[in-house]
Amino acid sequence: MFTKAMPIIQGVFVFKNGATHAKGARKAKPAESFLSNSARRQLWYRSYRNHWDKIQTMIDEIQSSSYGKILDDLLAFIENSYTSQGYDGVLPTAALLTGINQIDHMSQFEKLASNIRNNTFSYVVLLQSRDGSNLKQAIETIVEGFVEEQTEEYAEEKLLRKNQLNLVVLKAWYLEKHNQMERKPNLTIILSDFELFNPSVLQDIILILNSYATSLPFVLIFGVATSVATVHNVLPYHVTSKIKLSIFQSEPSITNLNTIIDNVLLTPYCPFHLSGRVFKLLLDIFLFYDFSVNRFVQTLKYSFFEHYFEKSINGLSTIVGDEDEVLDMVNQLSTAELDQIRQLPSFRPFVESLQHPQEVVDFLTNDEHLKRSLPGMLIQVHNYWFTFHCALEILQALVSDLPKAPLGKQLRELYCLCVYGDVTELPEFKECIQLLFFLSKEEMLQKVKKVLEIVLAYVNNNDRLSMEGCLVYEVAPVEQLANGLVALSDELDAASHEQILGNVQQDQQQQQLLSPSMGRQELREKLLTAARHAKSESGVTRAVGRLVDYFVKDIFQRYLRPPNSRTVPLIELFLFSDSTSVRQHMVGTPRAAIHTALNNPQYYTQCECCVLDNEYSIVPTMPDLSIAYKLHLECGRMINLFDWMQAFRTVVEDNQTDDGERGIDPKIQARFTRAVTELQFLGFIKASKKKTDHVTRLTW
What we know:
Elements: H1 37-40, H2 43-79, E1 91-97, H3 102-119, E2 122-127, H4 135-151, H5 167-178, E3 186-191, H6 199-212, E4 218-224, H7 229-234, H8 237-240, E5 243-249, H9 253-265, E6 273-274, H10 276-290, H11 293-310, H12 323-331, H13 335-342, H14 347-352, H15 357-365, H16 367-399, H17 411-420, H18 427-437, H19 441-467, H20 476-494, H21 501-513, H22 520-532, H23 539-559, E7 575-576, H24 579-586, H25 590-599, H26 602-605, H27 624-632, E8 638-640, H28 641-652, H29 666-682, E9 685-687, E10 694-697
Parallel strand pairs: 1-4, 1-5, 2-3, 3-4, 6-7
Antiparallel strand pairs: 8-10, 9-10
């Protein structure tokens, strides 16, 4: 009979003694697509791949340019750390302020280490806090990194044993290899997560490295996620006096994200658009979870794939070269895909707006007629996005620097408002219009100049696309918009602050009607009559009013129509609105996923042996952890380990017997012990201090 309490906090750990590196670095094989060749030839996948490759190239260029300046400065700092006079008593140290960006933080420093190896005469070691929990481990990691990096390509086994990894050996190795060289390589140590290091270990590392710096040219790089004050808080004066600190500020992740959104996503040349709900979800994940640009890009990539994979007809929204290419895609559509187009919510309002009954019948029943009409309808949607984004940037130029910025300062904030609904009906928009009337003549002319520059940029981009043989957008509305702004700005420029003559005469007549001998009732009627008349205004006030009215009625109300099924036919092909799918796949719910995996492992393993009749049933072919988990769900707050093990034994043991005196199989006991330990590691149970043969259940 098993009577003793079972320990649940013990574990077995395996250490590989004398492990060696494999000869040479194995090149990772490119991942093979899980899609078949026929699927990759379909319209939706070709459109997705063509579109995403262009987007990815643009994102890579933006990120390279944003990191380029800081990288060049950092490489120059490393190259010039040790000049002709050599060591001057302090370690050259760079503090790279990266900002809070938890997921992308390590990848940035891996790229930095690669650039230092390729572009400077330096050896590089990337030291993480997990590899430097104590001084001995940190020194061993540094020495091994420098020595083994240069020898692993030629040796099958490690050059040094673990007890030889110290700075004395590093010094001997360095002098033996480079003593005869006129210019010696620097030894660059990158501490990627500075805040996570033990302060005492960090102080000892710096002091020891400084004592060897006369013969070993160390260069330190601190990866600081917060601020430079952290360095001074962690390192006391006797340590900071041994380093010469230079500060390098990298671009904040929010600035990098705004650049990507403004120049890649929110442009008419990216026909794939996110609905307001999905776009806000992506921004919330970035702003409230991790500040990770990489995760934002991957979530955007998932949205791309989900949009094109959901319906093959969504591939019609891709960027095309000319109308002939659009016609080729339309001719490849099957009858079922044409029926999917007819079932779009925006197709019905379009058909109902047609004047001729025969045309309505042709759109609903004649596939050839629909194919002939689709290219023009698709190009019309492209033109809608062209004018929409032009008007959106005009709105940003007008309202981004207003006091308190009622509509926001960033283009992404305005985009969310404009795709949700009619932005001109918002109270914030009306407040911005009132604030525009308070601008001076010079400030309004400056804003009009910015607006004209935006319009000119759109026209020039369209001309460039025309020269490259790409699809040309309809620029006539934009040019008409610019002509109207030029005329009104000229009127404002010529206007003066003097009151208009008609208003002056009217004011004089009103003053003559008001006399001191007038009665109270008569005075009241005169004042009411005067209030009904238009107030006196100057030429500048009238010109500003006309200009603002032109912005509201002829630009914003016309071109910032929200993209919905009532306003734009076939808009669903260009707009992704499935926020539920994005939230389910990209926002982690670890507790629910763990419960599903343990309660019904067949959901993930897809094996036939673990199929359950219902969610409460238990089969012996399930993993031991799942069996123990489902048994523990049947218990109360305190769980008797012996009873729990007996129930576990009943499920997994092949030979069922009523012999209670028979001993428990040691293998079953070991399996149960491991399952219980894993449950404790996952946080479902903990050891009880009151009863040694019980555990406490922690989740309900």
